[in-house]
Amino acid sequence: MLKRIAAAVIGLGAVGGIGFLAYAWYPAIAPIPRPAASSFSADAISRGAIVANGGYCAECHTRVDGTPGPELAGDFKMATPFGDIFSSNITPDEQWGIGNWSLAAFKRAMNKGIARDGSQLYPAFPFDHFTKVNDQDVSDLYAYLMTRPAIHLKPRDNTVPFPINIRLIGQGFWKLLFFTPGRYQNDPKHDAQWNRGAYLAEGNEHCGACHTPRNLLGAEKMSKVYDGAVIDGWIAPPLNDHNPTPVVWTEDELFQYLRFGVAPLHGSAAGPMSPVPHRFLSKIPEEDVRAIAHYYADVDKAAQRSGGDQTAIARAMHMSGINLTGPLTQDPDARLYQAACGACHYNSGPNPVLGRPELALNNALWLDEPNNLYQVMLHGITAEEGQDHISMPSFYSGLSDHDMARIAAYLRRTRTTLPPWTDLEKKAASARATLEAPPITASH
What does the longest C-alpha to C-alpha distance in the chain come to? Predict the structure, then answer.
């Protein structure tokens, strides 16, 4: 009897193993000679440029550490809990890039996460979002990439350890657990603008890759979509109704932020988010940015939640004034803030002045941790990022960890209604330690 049971278990295991290999293994697609640039229409290339900008391709496929690399030649370092992963070269170089990839091979990579040689791609490449991109957009993106300059550059080797680096097994199981391929399907309950925004946001723009927390295996938690996550020491805040700011992200605020990098009631895009409006979404059709804003205004339930905005603005403006002219100016922390920050963050009217962010309304003070406040203090905001070329200098050298902790504690207790942050000086030191050198930013 035991022998029969053992034989049955072994047999089932063998069948399961064969089934898994059938699921995870893909054949190589034969290489092709590099297509001539003239084989692609000008319209396809132009549309492909829009897709490339919408998907921020150059952001993750261009080296920035050490000596900056050529655009789209890869070697961008992504530090993950599983080791460092370096992005691939997606220029039409035939040895190290995708010059010998056919359109079929490129589509398979985008929609299924499979390289031309049949190997499984790591989900650092967000194929779980790109699977939703339609064939026309993928084809146009291919035309655009194949007409860029070919860069002969080999990205560095990944440092993913054994056995995760056995992609057939590791990535095959990951996909079995977390990946559902398929193109975006319109939701008939919503209008065309909403569906266009959802198609872009969930697919090519892959917003959830940064704004959705991940589980221990690096997959997005589908039960917490758009709940926010930590990215490179910054917090990508929630995009849903869990966003804690006292003034709701309305469709207009979202559009201003995504198109121009500054929302009048929320401040400037900074850190990993900064390139999104400034380098990329500013180059795609305005109606597409409006569609994305329309979609996220629905996701965050802006219409239902914005009734208290005017009260929140009035409170913020009152606190901004009283804390710089009232009795709290005797507080040494208030004086430190006034000396370092008050000149640029003071508002006295009924509404914040554009280019003079009111911190009482800013996400950075309302998040669970002070990451973003500290990162902006240390990095500053360059003239290219700020509104109308207004910059914020880096306080990397001007403020100690103790000073930063005092300002953070002061702002949290006077500009919000939330409990105080803890271990502020320790967290300031930790944020500073992530910077290899003092940043260089433009002066006022």
Answer: 87
Q: Using one digit for the tens of pLDDT, what is the confidence trace for 316-356?
A: 888 776 655 555 557 888 889 888 887 778 777 667 666 67
Q: At residue 16, what is the residue type?
A: G
Closest Cα to residue 47, out of 284, 302, 215? Answer: 284
CA distance 231 to 211: 9
- Provide the token pair at 236: 């990508």
Containing 396, the helix (H) or strand (E) segment is none
Is the preceding peptide bond at 188 cis, omega within 30 degrees of 0? Answer: no
Residue pair 113/126 in contact (Cβ under 8 Å)? The answer is no
Residue 74, strand partner residues: 62
Whether the CB-CB separation of 197 and 294 falls below 8 Å is answered with yes
The angle formed by the CA atoms of residues 10, 12 and 17, to the nearest 5 degrees, is: 95
- Residue 79 CA, distance from chain mean position: 14
The DSSP annotation for 146-180 comes to HTSPP---PPPPP-PPTTTT-HHHHHHHHHHHH--
Q: In this predicted model, what pLDDT tens digit does every residue of 284-297 receive, in sequence order?
A: 999 999 999 999 99
Tell me whether residue 163 is exposed, middle or buried, using C-beta atoms within 10 angstroms of its C-beta: 0 to 12, 13 to 18, 19 or more: exposed
Structure tokens at 100: 């010998």
User: Which of these, 242, 244, 213, lies nearest to 412 by C-alpha position?
Assistant: 244
152, 74 Cβ separation under 8 angstroms: no
Stronger pLDDT, 346 or 251, i.e. the higher one: 251
Say which amino acid occupies 143: A
In whole angstroms, give the CA distance from residue 170 to residue 239: 31
Q: Which tokens hold the place of 341?
A: 């920050």
Amino acid at 201: A
Only one residue has tokens 């001007």, namely: 398
Which of 430, 414, 289 is closest to 341 using CA atoms? 414
Measuring CA to CA, which residue among 317, 391, 394 is closest to residue 350?
Answer: 317
Tokens 């100016």 locate to 329
Q: Where are the beta strands (DSSP E) in 308-393?
A: none
d(CA 209, CA 133): 15
Residue 83: enclosing H or E segment and its boundaries?
A: strand 83-86
pTM of the model: 0.91
Q: Which residues contact 348 (CB under 8 A, 6 or more apart)?
A: 317, 320, 321
- Give the separation between CA 372 and CA 352, rounded to whole angstroms: 20
